[in-house]
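## retry 2 of 3
previous attempt timed out at serialization; input unchanged, resubmitting
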Amino acid sequence: MNDENRYMGSLLAKTGMVASAHPLSSLAGIEALRQGGTAMDACLSMAAVTTVVLPHMCGLGGDAFFIYREGSSGRAVALNGSGPGGDGLTIERYGQKGGILPQDGILSVAVPGAPLVYEMAAKRFGRLGLKKCFQVGIDVAREGFPVTPELNRSITANKEKLAKFEASKRTFLEDGGPPKVGSTMVREDLASTLEAFALEGASYMYKGSFYRHFQRTQADMGGTFSGDEFPRFFEEPPAFYAPLSTDYRGYTILQTAPVTPGFIMLEEMNILENFEMGEMDLTGADSLHLMIEAKKLAFADRNAHAGDPAVTGFDVTKFISKEYAEELAASISLTRTDSNRLGGLEGGSDTTSFVAWDGEGNVCSFIHSNAFAFGSGVTVPETGVLLNNRAGRSFALQPGHPNALEPGKRPMHTLNCYMVLKDGEPFITGGTPGGDGQPQWNMQMLSLMLDRGMGPQAASDFPRWTSSPGTDVIGLGAPFIVRMESRFPEGTAKALREKGHTVQMVGAWAGGGGAQIIMKDPLTGVLLGGSDRRLTGVALGY
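## retry succeeded, writing output
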């Protein structure tokens, strides 16, 4: 395991480490660790900062999920934080409007799960307290932060959506366009909301002042929320649970359970285990072909079978079994792609993930999101909180479909987190944003790390591909296409086309994602960190 190649390009540290998609976020995380906080305190501090500096990706109006491994007990625990749409949002009411729900506006909004997740995580796994963890985000919002090229581009790309809603227009399009790169953005309204949340806890969001602001806003916009949804979610919180798991060549891979798509990444890895991935050309067509076909098989299962387990009774046991994976692997032709799978167009995505590892052996993978960039586009006036568009993005309007829209039902999700154990001890924690790209990019990077012995930074830097369609409802049934970064050899694209794949080459670093990964060398105890160069994130350690 102590292979020098594994260390190439990765940040090295001995005691603690964090990695996130923004330098200010990583700085907040490492400071939390240095102040005696746990890995969860670090993640909550990073959550607070990313809520401010990455408003297109995440916030109090979105969802959150995590896997946490306690050093003292050795137990791994996960939590899913996402809510249903409005009680009045039904197929009967909206099923005649074109086959999909609106992708922005109040009809696209689901009850945000993130605030309750933050509070529950702080109480169970934190040491510093919610107020201290969120203070750094409050300070950044009040003092202001430099606008990054990524934020400028995202505002520009979503100008039309943001301009529809007065509060969002005032915040992000003050002079009719996006703030200039390098200019200082101040978010006093959001700072006040974060401060109230940090002091009062999640009740402020689900039963208190924010809830009342939300109810007025959604009523004015013709929303479908009865008024019971937010308090009900708070009073019937999601339960902590043991993560899903599978063995892969001597490693144990942990994933989040439905409504997340974590099971399809485990299904992909189980399929790959039937092939000698470590013996294949890393950038060759044969290895890519097998991974693409594994992705298509797993995603087809998600599209055909997965729905909120609390409503549908969906059970992943079959789909993450070795026997089922063997059947699927045997169905893959090594020479020809199977285009006869269930598919759909990829939607947009804006999400951010971060990871932390502390000196007591506590390890965390955390992810939160607004769904699409800037979510629904709706900012609740006087609060600075952007609302997600998870209901519009994810629910199907086909009666009888496992993911069909129903009151009180949570839509299937794109967010997921993973962790890898070796001999029962944490070896890797990681995650990436990117909608339906997440299970396939995580599969690619895990294969590089577990089959090839790569370190976090090298695996993150490796050329990336994305197979569309995925699971978003906005275009189910579209033909498949593989988008490959131009750093792959031309011969690989040619060979894939000969196998029947439709291939599109994209920019050298335009494959999507923003992976954050920490690995621990079991022989030396050294922590290795990697942060995706496709974003402006950074890993920090001490």
